Amino acid sequence: MNVSGLSVDERFMRRALELATLGRGHVSPNPMVGCVITHGSGSQERIIGEGWHKRYGDWHAEVNAVNSVLPEHQQLLSEATVYVTLEPCSHWGKTPPCADLLIERHVKRVVCCNDDPNPLVSGQGFAKLRAAGIQVETGVLAEQGRLLNARFFTFFEQKRPYILLKWAETADGFIAGAGGQPVKISGDLAHRLVHRWRGEEDAILVGANTARLDNPRLNTRLWEGKDPTRVVLDRNLTLTTDLHLFDGSQPTLVYHASQTDALPDLPNVQYVVAESLYQVMSDLYQRKVQSVLVEGGAVVLNAFMEAGLWDEMRVFRSRTMLGNGVKAPTVRGIIHSREKVGDDELTSYMKP
Ligand code: AOF
Ligand code: ZN
Fold this sequence. Notes:
Mean pLDDT: 95
Largest sheet: 9 strands, mixed
CATH architecture of the largest domain: 3-Layer(aba) Sandwich
Strand content: 25-35%
Low-confidence stretches: none
Distance between the termini: 30 Å
Order of helices and strands: HEEHEHEHEHHEEHEHEEEHEHEEEE
Bound molecules: ligand AOF, zinc ion
Number of helices: 10
Radius of gyration: 23 Å
CATH superfamily of the largest domain: Dihydrofolate Reductase, subunit A
Shape: elongated
CATH class of the largest domain: Alpha Beta
Number of strands: 16
Strand order of the largest sheet: 11-10-9-8-12-6-13-16-15
Number of domains: 2
CATH topology of the largest domain: Dihydrofolate Reductase, subunit A
């Protein structure tokens, strides 16, 4: 232990976790992964290489870390410890298996936060390394590792996307005006932050009322980032196709439960039958959507809560009073963080 209260392994792993976060927003559906390579032991242990998974389809963290080791230090790899936030892969995917690379370079020890939940890898990466005589330790900063890739773990373990419920409410607890009429509740900074979040998730979901009354674009125009897939719940197909959601600028999925075959033929818009929220979520899982940001309205947010289909809630509270309107959902979960965003207060809650 040193002054930070962390063991040496934990200290290097914390660095690997930091590196992993540099891939945020660019690697989905892959996990964020960071890697630190060290040489020496005890107080002499020094970093000789670092890397992270930068972009989907690109090299994995371990490859970038091995390549970052200076040519004159490459021979040190046979005495090196590799700290990698996730179990090294064992499969031929877009790139060759990372476990094979570490075996080829004869590294001495591999330390990880978590086992890879992807069935293509799960346990087989570690098995390969051990069979080659490499020391393997897993479970170092395991909780931080799971939190970092909560979307990836939820997707493989629960076979549904990670679900974030988001809304803004007034000081007196309203989410919209009377009859669901949109009112400006949170400020410009909160608005921009939401656009950043949109770029970090695979999909954004709204109900038919919100689609009709707010006519949202559900893109990330206030932040640099990819535009997520739009998801609209329109059970009885009541929405008119002149709404921004149907402009074809982003892939758009419309879930409905109507029997009709007479569906609009719009570019980039797909109609899918689903009888329940569970069916919607399992269809999104089939489409490899790892996370969904639910932006309302109240009926939809409450339905997700009632179904137990949520992982995180993010609530902006403004100082404004509305007097009447649509009541905001009741928050649940454990407070994870609280901060000021402009004049608004943002609180996030995690499912216990
Ligand atoms: C690692 N290191 O940095 C990452 C891993 O499609 P591919 O070939 O990129 O493979 C994606 C899978 O590989 C992903 O689902 C996860 O199981 C693992 N990700 N593994 O050894 C990395 N990003
Ligand atoms: Zn890999």
